[in-house]
């Protein structure tokens, strides 16, 4: 989940695309979004695309890199997060989560597809960080904890996959 503008940078011998597509917004909606979602409003209406490196519980980097991205859309007190990832076999998975802020933080986002196995809890740490936790919808067990930070013109996500019942972290995802 990466950066602004159409440019290329070299990452350990691989080219990495940086892409950002901005869309126009209603000024009144933008002011409302900023007061309700101070951090998410900075990320909204942008397709953030990047690459993910992965380590397993042994902290050794996996021999693959995944491409994916995320997008946040805001409408008053409503939030929609869309994420996608393309696997080494070429298949892409897209997940859309939606929620409504109701004066309580953190905010819960549920999958648009009712059969989705997770829900997400989201909180903001102004001025530039979003915290996420994913939970199994059936058992309520935590599956992943992540932080998403806006650093200048780049979105950086670090996610820790939760191990079984207090066990070690199963894996770490580093998105840039």
Description:
The protein has 176 residues and is mainly beta. Helices cover 8% and strands 52% of the residues. It is built from two helices and twelve strands. Strands 3-4-5-6-7-8-9-10-11-12 form a ten-stranded antiparallel barrel. It is globular and about 40 Å long. The relative contact order is 0.17. Mean pLDDT is 82; it is low at 1-29.
Q: Residue share in helices?
A: under 10%
Tally the beta strands. 12
Radius of gyration: 16 Å
Q: What structural category do the secondary elements indicate? A: mainly beta
Number of helices: 2
- Major sheet: order of its strands? 3-4-5-6-7-8-9-10-11-12
Q: State the separation between the terminal residues, measured CA to CA.
A: 5 Å
Low-pLDDT residue intervals, each spanning 5 or more residues: 1-29
What's the overall average pLDDT, rounded?
A: 82
Strand content: over 45%
Form type: globular
Pattern of helices and strands: EEHHEEEEEEEEEE
Largest sheet: 10 strands, antiparallel, barrel
Oligomer: single chain
What topology emerges from the helices and strands here?
Elements: E1 7-11, E2 14-18, H1 27-36, H2 40-43, E3 47-56, E4 66-75, E5 78-86, E6 92-100, E7 107-111, E8 118-125, E9 129-136, E10 142-151, E11 154-161, E12 171-175
Antiparallel strand pairs: 1-2, 3-4, 3-12, 4-5, 5-6, 6-7, 7-8, 8-9, 9-10, 10-11, 11-12
Please tag this protein with its features:
52% strand, mainly beta, globular, two-stranded antiparallel sheet, 10-stranded antiparallel β-barrel, disordered N terminus, 176 residues
């Amino acid at each position: 989940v990466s950066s602004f503008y159409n440019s290329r940078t070299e990452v350990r011998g691989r080219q990495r695309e940086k892409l950002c597509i901005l869309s126009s917004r209603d000024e009144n909606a933008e002011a409302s979004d900023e007061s309700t979602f101070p951090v998410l409003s900075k990320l909204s209406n942008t397709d953030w695309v990047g690459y993910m490196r992965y380590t397993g519980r042994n902290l050794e980097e996996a021999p693959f890199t995944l491409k994916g991205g995320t997008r946040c859309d805001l409408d008053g007190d409503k939030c929609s997060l869309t994420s996608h990832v393309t696997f080494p076999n070429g298949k892409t998975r897209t997940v859309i989560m939606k929620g409504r802020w109701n004066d309580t933080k953190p905010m819960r986002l549920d999958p648009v597809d009712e059969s989705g196995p997770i829900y997400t809890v989201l909180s903001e740490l102004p001025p530039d960080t979003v915290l996420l936790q994913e939970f199994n919808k059936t058992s309520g067990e935590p599956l992943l904890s992540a932080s998403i930070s806006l650093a200048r013109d780049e979105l950086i996500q670090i996610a820790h996959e939760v191990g079984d019942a207090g066990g070690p972290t199963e894996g770490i995802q580093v998105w840039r």
